[in-house]
């Protein structure tokens, strides 16, 4: 056993710190809080830098004094007797006053920044309503009259004012690259606003819930895309429409006897139908629908693609490929099937027979699910296979998920029972529903 | 109830009665202190294992070592365990063992209440810990934010155990606090003015006031939650218009002073260890005492810095920001005064001193990152990330636990009569020091690089992998350090070198009596004439510059006090004619009744109304009957 000495403390500490510093400089940090993407974060980074400087000075002074004292005054044979000083008023006042002075240099910019950040957002700001749910994000764009989920589009150069509320427990809204966080509190509306700077490049970034909210708190993520104003306008125009799979589009498609060339309707924005609503007659196409615009998948960096491992649940790929969107749509929209496929009692698909509106929906609005890169609060990539597995057994893919298990024979861990054949969906039906969902573009 | 422990006259030491019954019935503050120590060290192991599981799950992205639900229970219980079942009781172990010895008293003011405090803690600890073996451990975080902890979103039994467990533990803390305040005010030896008390006793004194001011607040908050959960009230039920922020305010009005309840005893211990091993009086004694009071006072005015993300508005944010900065000042003064205590001294570095210096070095880091949280615009990027986890582990592990380890090495010879092995102590220190920095320093990075707290999993490529792997490795190192400590503790207890009454050349009264002390502590109450009575006796030159004065002659005569002297003789209390409190099982029984009574609410939640009423009424009746028996039986 080697004998250890206090004098080894400084080298050990220095080496450890150097290693860490090296580690910190060597990698890619896509969620770094030190960005200058918004004026909100400029203030945070300015204060951080100042505190880092002052803090480092204090740290070095204290540790140098400490280490010096340890070495200088260690007991030696025949050393001087210990001095018997019991205090020194001047010294003690000095080392109270100097830190107090240091704090003034921190306090003044702090208070100034607090008041700057919490002004009322400038007029003309993009309004986004953020509504937290266990465990996913609802995003509404009230100025444009549509609702989406888990993927946030922000135009570069325009202030965005978020109003934050929750449908259940507390959550907290955070895009680390954009600035600080703000809690979503029941029975209150909170606000935070920032402006993605005009010179920013179009980018994809991660957001997360940062207030502990239960089982799947870790799985309550979202994506934020900063896009050029022109692209944003295209995205908005498309999001405002009913989806390609909605009655109008399907009717047109059936008329043309070709699902591949589905026409798109451009029904003006309306509030979602209320419960119970009789099946809507197919609308005639009013005008050519705008082309779907979404953030290009090939520009999304690896860290924005979900890597959640898929469960062991099996799903026949051939069955999936043979999925029939018309049959899938019938399953969802025919009231006779509500017992087996009650999708629209929790989700909204604009233009379909909905049993709930956005304020009542317990699950994300699916109108344009086919244009979202990810689903289940950023936990999975939107593709046919993953969607099928999800419908088959969502609680197995996201702990605590209130989305029920639908696959016949699957075990629902949340309510601790296996889905009986009478109440569930078989794989063919799930494949049909997935095929329908994939048309919701 | 007559007990075998008190019927036979016995000499302390080898022939002392150490059977199970003697521990269940003891009212000796030293034995109760030892019970606290062992129980809290046991829970330290439990909390450490919880931490190890947490860190193993986070070692790499998307692991599934534990499920999401288990992880949530683990982090909730890790926090709850470490705060309420480890650090507070470890401090209580020292309060119990040391305060009467340091102030020259023969016991605490209310010895049976003291036993009661311990048993409520021990049984309450089991109440809150055992559910983890049935998969229903609390899962709403140690902060229990409503409405997640309420009946709507936390409908399982999990948070029942948390709410009731915390209520039970609060009873223990409050009873102990009143006991120690009474003890310190009333039982000091003649001549020991407040400003002559050892610094550990001073800091303990401040802490007791924090307890009696802060715990009623959490008690009220928990009552609201308890009523919501069991009786259908709507304090925090959001669907009925309840306000979740009420909980947050109440919780943090308690929660922030709680931080100082955890750290000030460690500051006190270090303030004993440093002067002793520097052979120099504490630098700036008055300022050290006042800064402790100042920290305690300001500690009640900073709670909303836990709530900057809540959106309290710019005025509230500014005020709590400034008050938080202010609290850095008295804390900083302590750091400088400790260094000044060593400066010019003749330093010796036993393990206790290494840990004391470790506290200064590490707490400084936690203090600086604490000031960083005080600036809301910047804090909004830090709060609820791993940066905060790093911060408070530097405070609570680098500060409180370092100080407590220092205290254990320092006072082990007093408690057991034997010295701990210094070489193993050195190993423990270094493994601990490196492990702690390896675990917690990288968390500063993972936090500022965007990693939220309380997540059971994360994706690769987020820039967090290396830091998480380092933290996990550091945790394993800390476990090795803990094993070295445990080995050292138990081997030294059996075979360590015999310590004698004063192995460190310390200045205070507890070192003037044999190790371990006889059950009556002081055969003759010493009269104190300065802050460092034992140095007055042994090395008068060291205290020549201090004020010395004799106390009131009447009080000295009334207490039969004699000048400070070393006691070496071991005689029984009976031989000396010192009346000792009688051992009794009644405090244990009252505590048991309380636990049974509270358990009735769990049965109520299970829907078994008659059984629930029977349990509550039965427990309540048992408690009242035991209490009556306790109050009608004489103390001595």
Explain what this protein looks like in three dimensions:
The complex is a heterodimer of chains A (441) and B (636). With 441 residues, chain A is an alpha+beta fold. Helices cover 32% and strands 15% of the residues of chain A. Chain A is built from 10 helices and 14 strands. Chain A has a 5-stranded mixed β-sheet with strand order 3-2-1-5-8. In chain A, strands 4-10-9-6-7 form a 5-stranded mixed β-sheet. A two-stranded antiparallel ribbon of chain A has the order 11-12. In chain A, helix 2 packs antiparallel against helix 3 (89-117), helix 7 crosses helix 10 and helix 8 (384-392) packs across helix 10 (427-439). Chain B is mainly α. Among the domains of chain B are: 1-28 and 567-584, no CATH class; 524-565, no CATH class; 585-636. Chain B contains 20 helices and 2 strands. The longest helix of chain B has 35 residues, at 68-102. The radius of gyration of chain B is 25 Å and the shape is globular. Residues 1-15 of chain B have low confidence and may be disordered. At the A-B interface, helix 1, helix 2, helix 3, strand 8 and strand 9 of A face helix 4, helix 8, helix 9, helix 10 and helix 11 of B.
């Amino acid at each position: 056993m080697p004998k250890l000495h206090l004098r080894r403390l400084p080298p050990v500490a220095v080496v450890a710190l150097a290693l860490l510093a090296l580690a910190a400089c060597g990698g890619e940090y896509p969620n770094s809080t030190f960005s200058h993407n918004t004026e909100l974060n400029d203030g945070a980074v300015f204060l951080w830098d100042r505190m880092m400087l002052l803090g480092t000075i204090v740290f070095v002074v204290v540790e140098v004094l400490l280490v010096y004292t340890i070495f200088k005054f260690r007991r030696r044979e025949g050393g001087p007797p210990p001095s018997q000083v019991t205090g020194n008023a001047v010294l003690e006042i000095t080392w109270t006053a100097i830190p107090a002075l240091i704090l003034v240099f921190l306090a003044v910019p702090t208070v100034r920044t607090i008041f700057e950040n919490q002004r009322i957002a400038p007029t003309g700001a993009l309004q986004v309503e953020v509504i937290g749910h266990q465990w996913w994000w609802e995003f509404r764009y009230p100025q444009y009259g549509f609702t989406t989920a888990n993927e946030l589009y922000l135009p570069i150069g325009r202030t965005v004012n978020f109003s934050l509320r929750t449908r259940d427990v507390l959550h907290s809204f955070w895009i680390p690259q954009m600035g600080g966080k703000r809690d979503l509190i029941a029975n209150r509306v909170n606000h935070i606003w920032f402006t993605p700077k005009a010179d920013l490049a179009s980018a994809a970034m991660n957001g997360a819930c940062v207030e502990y909210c239960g089982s799947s708190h870790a799985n309550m993520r979202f994506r934020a895309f900063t896009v050029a104003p022109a692209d944003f306008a295209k995205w908005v125009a498309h999001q405002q429409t009913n989806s390609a799979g909605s009655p109008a589009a399907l009717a047109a498609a059936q008329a043309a006897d070709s699902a591949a060339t589905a026409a798109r309707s451009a029904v003006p924005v309306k509030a979602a139908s209320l419960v119970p609503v009789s099946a809507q007659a197919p609308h005639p196409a009013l005008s050519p629908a705008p082309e779907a615009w979404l953030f290009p998948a090939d520009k999304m960096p690896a860290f924005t693609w979900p890597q959640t491992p898929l469960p062991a649940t099996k799903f026949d790929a051939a069955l999936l490929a043979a999925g029939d969107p018309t049959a899938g749509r019938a399953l969802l929209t025919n009231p006779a099937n509500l017992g087996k496929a009650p999708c629209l009692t929790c989700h909204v698909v604009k233009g379909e027979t909905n049993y709930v509106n956005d304020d009542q929906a317990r699950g994300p609005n699916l109108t344009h699910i086919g244009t979202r890169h990810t689903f289940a609060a950023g936990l999975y990539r939107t593709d046919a296979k993953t969607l099928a597995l999800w419908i088959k057994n969502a609680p197995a893919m996201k702990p605590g998920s209130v989305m029920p298990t639908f696959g016949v024979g699957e075990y629902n861990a949340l309510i601790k029972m296996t889905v009986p054949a009478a109440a569930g969906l078989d794989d063919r039906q799930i494949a049909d529903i997935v095929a329908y969902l994939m048309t919701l573009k | 109830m007559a007990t075998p422990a008190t019927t036979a006259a016995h000499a302390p030491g080898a022939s002392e009665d150490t059977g199970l019954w003697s521990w269940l019935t003891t009212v000796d503050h030293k034995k109760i202190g030892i019970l606290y120590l062992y129980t809290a060290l046991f829970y330290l192991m439990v909390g450490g294992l919880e931490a190890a599981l947490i860190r193993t799950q986070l070692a790499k992205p998307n692991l599934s070592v534990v499920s999401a639900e288990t992880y949530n229970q683990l982090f909730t219980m890790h926090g709850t365990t470490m705060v309420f079942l480890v650090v507070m009781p470890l401090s209580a172990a020292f309060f119990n063992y040391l305060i009467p010895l340091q102030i020259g008293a023969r016991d605490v003011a209310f010895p049976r209440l003291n036993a009661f405090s311990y048993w409520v803690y021990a049984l309450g600890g089991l109440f809150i810990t055992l559910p983890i073996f049935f998969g229903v451990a609390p899962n709403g975080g140690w902060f229990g934010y409503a409405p997640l902890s309420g009946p709507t979103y936390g409908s399982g039994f999990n948070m029942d155990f948390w709410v009731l467990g915390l209520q039970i533990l609060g009873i223990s803390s409050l009873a102990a606090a009143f006991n120690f305040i009474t003890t310190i005010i009333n039982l000091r030896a003649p001549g020991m003015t407040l400003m002559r008390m050892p610094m550990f006793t001073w800091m303990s004194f401040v802490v007791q006031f924090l307890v009696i001011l802060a715990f009623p607040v959490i008690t009220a908050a928990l009552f609201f939650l308890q009523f919501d959960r069991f009786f259908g009230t709507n304090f925090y039920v959001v669907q009925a218009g309840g306000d979740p922020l009420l909980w947050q305010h109440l919780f943090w009005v308690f929660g922030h002073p709680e931080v100082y309840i955890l750290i000030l005893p460690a500051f006190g211990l270090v303030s004993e260890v440093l002067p002793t091993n520097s052979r120099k009086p504490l630098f700036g004694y008055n300022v050290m005492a006042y800064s402790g009071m100042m920290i305690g006072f300001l500690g009640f005015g900073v709670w909303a810095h836990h709530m900057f993300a809540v959106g309290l508005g710019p005025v509230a944010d500014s005020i709590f920001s400034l008050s938080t900065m202010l609290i850095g000042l008295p804390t900083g003064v302590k750091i400088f005064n400790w260094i000044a205590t060593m400066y010019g001294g003749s330093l010796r570095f036993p393990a206790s001193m290494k840990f004391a210096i470790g506290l200064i070095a590490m707490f400084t880091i936690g203090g600086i990152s604490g000031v960083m949280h005080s600036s809301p615009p910047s804090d909004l990027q830090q709060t609820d990330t791993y940066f905060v986890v790093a911060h408070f582990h530097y405070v609570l592990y680098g500060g409180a636990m370092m100080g407590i380890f220092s205290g254990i090495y320092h006072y082990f010879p007093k408690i057991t009569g034997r010295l701990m092995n210094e070489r193993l102590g050195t190993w423990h220190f270094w493994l601990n020091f490196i492990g702690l920095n390896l675990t917690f320093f990288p968390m500063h990075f993972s936090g500022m690089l965007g990693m939220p707290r309380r997540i059971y999993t994360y994706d690769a490529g987020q820039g967090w992998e290396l830091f998480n792997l380092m933290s996990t490795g550091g945790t394993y190192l800390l476990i090795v350090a803990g094993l070295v400590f445990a080995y050292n503790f138990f081997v030294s207890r059996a075979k360590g070198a015999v310590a004698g009454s004063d192995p460190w050349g310390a200045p205070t009264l507890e070192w003037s009596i044999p190790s371990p002390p006889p059950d009556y502590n002081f055969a003759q109450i010493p009269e104190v004439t300065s802050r460092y009575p034992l140095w007055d006796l042994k090395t008068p030159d060291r205290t020549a510059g201090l004020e010395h004065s004799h106390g009131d002659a009447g009080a000295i005569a009334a207490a039969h006090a004699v000048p400070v002297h070393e006691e070496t003789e071991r005689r029984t209390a009976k031989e000396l004619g010192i009346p000792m409190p009688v051992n009794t099982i009644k405090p244990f029984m009252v505590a048991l009744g309380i636990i049974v009574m509270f358990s009735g609410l769990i049965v109520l939640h299970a829907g078994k109304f008659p059984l629930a009423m029977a349990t509550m009424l039965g427990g309540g009746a048992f408690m009242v009957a035991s209490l009556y028996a306790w109050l009608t039986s004489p103390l001595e």
